[in-house]
Amino acid sequence: MSTSRRNFLKNTIATAAALPIIGANKSLFSNNLNEDNWDHISNKDLLKDFNEWVNLYVTEIRNEKALGREFKDNEALVHLPEQMEEMMPKFKARFEDADFLKEYIKISQKLTKEIDQSF
Predict the structure, then answer these.
(1) Burial level of 46, CB count in 10 A (0-12/13-18/19+)?
(2) pLDDT tier at 22 (50, 70, 90 boundaries)?
């Protein structure tokens, strides 16, 4: 994986405040995160779905590492930065809740950590 893609992915996940709003492909994993409007979704449910989404990507990353393949060879991983960009404005709308933000960061760090481990 190129350094620029790795850095972009790390920044996308770790830095919630500075992301642009860009359209992207739908998530490959289906849950509430795919919905256009999150107003009816509780913070608890949203964080549960985000955790599920992150765990699925962590599994994908570990599988790719085990196979010794590059990031670019896995379509799910290639679209991860775009999916994060698409979801980020909706997450940011809930960051005023300190507990939500704390849990969001905790969950997202699992993905960042996995990417940081020489991928």
Answers:
(1) buried
(2) very low
